[in-house]
Amino acid sequence: MPLVNTLATAHSPYLRAHADNPVAWQQWSSSTLARAKSENKPIFLSIGYHTCHWCHVMNEESFGSQKVAAKLNEFFVPVKLDREERPDIDAVYMLYLQAMSGGRGGWPLNVFLAPGTLEPIFGGTYWPGPWDEVSAKTGRTAKPPGPEFMDVLERIHQFWVEDEEKCRFAGADAIRQLRDWTNAKNKSDSAELHPGILYDAYEYFTERFDKVNGGFGEAPKFPQPIMLSLLINMNAYMRISEKIESGDDHQSAADIALFSLKKIAKGGIRDQVGYGFARYSVTPDWSLPHFEKMLYDQSLLMSAYLDAWLFNKRDNEFALECVRDIATYITSGPLTHKEGGYYSAEDADSIAPDNAFKKREGAYYVWTYEEFFKVLGRIPGDVAAAHWGVSEYGNVDAKFDLHGELEGMNVLSVVMDIPELSRVFGMTEEVALQTIEKCKVELREFREANRPAPEVDDKIVAGWNGLAMGALARAGAAIMENDAASGGAWLESAKRTAKLLREKMYDAETGRLWRVYCAEETGETPGMCEDYAYVISGLLDLYGATFDVDYLKWAQQLQETQNSLFWDSEESGFYSAMEENSGELILRMKSGADTVEPSSNAVSVSNLMKLAAVLEEDEYEQMALRTLDAYAKDILTQPYAYCGILGSVVAGSEGMRTVVIVGRTKEDIQAMITGVRSVLLPNTALVVLQGHFTPEDADAESKQNWLVGHSEIYEVLLERDSHAAVAYICQERTCGAPITDAGELVRVLEDSVQNPAE
Predict the structure, then answer these.
(1) Residue 397, CA distances (Å) to 248, 282, 662 in order
(2) Which DSSP helix (H) or strand (E) runs through 280?
(3) How far is the C-alpha of 367 from the C-alpha of 392, rounded, in Å?
(4) Is the Cα torsion angle 34, 35, 38, 42 positive or negative in sign?
């Protein structure tokens, strides 16, 4: 019986978007894999995600082609996979592709697999469709370099038919080498980690720092918020005596990060009239984004900008504006789910204003010169055009516009700051700022009223929601004193997300998470290690923002589940996927290095250390230290690849710090809490203990008793309570003298950050 396209029944929006293809797409399942084996047909595995621009291009050029479909359906078993549903499978074949191509990878990720063994025969990313069809449809004449997809299909089929044994040997040999490499990396090597490793990371970043545009390296350029947060926090981790030269400036680690964050905030990578940030820039100066907006990018950037603001509130007001921007996008924008939680991403492509049947990248965001002035009028338009670099002939460099879709278009990025704008146009800075803010509103309202918005991938991914929940909790708590309305709204959104995760994506009987919730249904994919790590991290941040012990209790329960499912009892550290799913994986991956997301092992180490500090669980601390040891050799060799874990290296050496605030009532301790939240405090946990409860607070008292039951220190501190509010700074199970003044507490904490131990 011939294969037919089965994607109409898929849970993933990305897969369903291919349901009308003539390609007989199958879903990744045991029955599909068994059929390929019984028919001895190679599997063509195409991995992508809903908002991937080049996935859309290949879909339009190739997977919608009858010619391509005929070849695929006859000689292969075509399988579509959403990388966001199955990152474990994606990681294996991406590793193969990068090893085969010298480090290059991306999506769509296309690999041909030997039936039965699932070992890769050949792989690549985007291949052009049949060029006669593409050219006739689009009018494009410049064919992209490299073979057409049809050529690849014919060569692989011929190779398989003529020498199946050689194909299988090549795949087996590639996987043998990758398995040897991953097994070697999974083996613990004896190496001593120490905080001085941060110097090596610092030197690496200074060498690659773009002194003109900010960020690191050449285009395409990613914001890399994990690195930027590390650089901001380095001052708290250690004293960096080295400086780098940048003209007449001398820049510290924090200076590098702050300069980069400012440049990113001014660039086209930020939606200058709407909200949120695009995934990356195709230009070195951040001016031309790849327009898709990912939830995890928003969450990580919000944390980095929050760190920048807390580092120096007076000088970094821009960072707070970015925090507000991202929080608005997440909590009341297209990614917001009505029950709580956040969708995965917003597409890069959308319907073009001049062609209702054609999608173009960035169509929702870009402006012609005429349209820009039609919306704003001449005088305010002149001011806004100077501010955002709008040109009569467009401001997109043709060499970065591969398909000619942005010809004559303007991407808005700040090229003239408000002070200069006010001088050029002879107005006060206040009037200039008001003009720009008014233009933002008018452009946004016009865009929303007249342009079809990009599609949204409405999957709710557990781990990414954990990242967003944590970022919103931290930000909401940090601004609560100055802006209770916004802070309260962000915290409420984070709490609603925790509620959705618990009700829709958590099995209380097994203690396990599900990875995806979509279309009001929970998917069949079990939670990955990153889901547990990110959700636990978010819950710990939510506890630190609300002091609701339920979040702490659930975090510990999830940590126990994660330990049981993913822990490597032989070599330490956490596998990416649990063992019961490893039958579908030719490699069971385990990595401590960050990608665009923080490594699950890095986040897990931080979680374990926080839980150990708050709950006095020695076992958690030992697991964290053993994980650091497992990656010690790699961290020493390539510290820049392990930014997410380097802060925990310091905590492992010096111990986590816990600030314990004890007071009679909630009101008594509020000033102390506010003071602690005003300081950037990495590797620090905050615990609040209430000395007296009313009968109406019996539930809160019961929750606190659970927490106090974990620590003799808490019992002792509660018994000492003789003031309205007392703070203790504890480290390695020893607490300092009581501090009874909120201002003094802030001074002590700021001094510890600005003058850390040598």
Answers:
(1) 31, 11, 60
(2) strand 280-281
(3) 10
(4) negative
Q: What phi and psi, each to the nearest 5 degrees, are found at residue 110?
A: -115, 120
Instruction: Render pLDDT for 523-560 as a digit per residue (tens, 0 to 9).
Output: 889 999 999 999 999 999 999 999 999 999 999 999 99
Q: Measuring CA to CA, which residue among 219, 196, 354 is closest to residue 282?
A: 219
Place of tokens 């300069």: 259
Closest to 42 in 3D by CA, of 204, 191, 158: 158
pLDDT at 521: 86
Taking 80 as the threshold, does the pLDDT of residue 357 lie above it? no
Buried b / exposed e across 722-734, counting CB within 10 Å, b at 16+?
ebebbbbbbeeee
CA angle 57/459/281 to nearest 5° reads 45
Q: What is the pLDDT of residues 167-221, one digit of tens each?
A: 899 888 888 888 877 776 666 566 788 888 898 899 999 999 999 999 998 889 9
3-state class percentages of the chain: helix first, strand second, coil last, to nearest 5: 55, 15, 35
Across the strands, what pairs with 734?
Answer: 731
The closest of 405, 383, 387, 386 to 396, measured between CA atoms, is 405
Q: How many residues does the chain have?
A: 758
Cis previous bond, 334, omega within 30: no
| Cβ neighbours for 439, distance < 8 A, ≥ 6 positions apart | 273, 376, 380, 381, 383, 384
Distances (CA, A) of 56 to 134, 326, 639: 14, 26, 36
Taking only Cα atoms into account, the Rg of the chain, rounded to an integer number of angstroms, comes to 27
Please answer whether residues 288 and 396 qualify as being in contact, where contact means their C-beta atoms are separated by less than 8 angstroms: yes
Structure tokens at 673: 């809490």
Dump pLDDT digits (tens) for 38-78.
999 999 999 999 988 889 889 999 999 999 999 999 999 99
Provide CB contacts within 8 A for 46, sequence distance 6+: 63, 78, 79, 80, 81, 108, 109, 110
C-beta pairs of 691-700 under 8 Å, 24+ apart in sequence: 691/662, 691/663, 691/664, 691/665, 691/718, 691/721, 692/664, 692/665
Residue type, position 455, single letter: E
Q: Would you state the structure tokens that stand for residue 160, as one six-digit string?
A: 């398989």
**Six token digits for residue 530:** 């990153």
Q: What was the pLDDT predicted at 758?
A: 39
Residue 661 · residue 725 · CB < 8 Å:
yes
290 CB-near residues (< 8 Å, 6+ apart): 53, 220, 278, 279, 280, 281, 282, 348, 361
What is the pLDDT, as a whole number, of residue 247? 41
**For residues 434 and 421, what is the distance between their CA atoms, to the nearest angstrom?**
12
Residue 718: closest CA among 733, 738, 696: 738
Q: Are 342 and 497 a contacting pair, CB within 8 Å?
A: yes
The runs of H, that is alpha helices, within 547-665 are 549-566, 600-615, 618-630, 632-637, 643-654
pTM recorded for the entire structure: 0.93
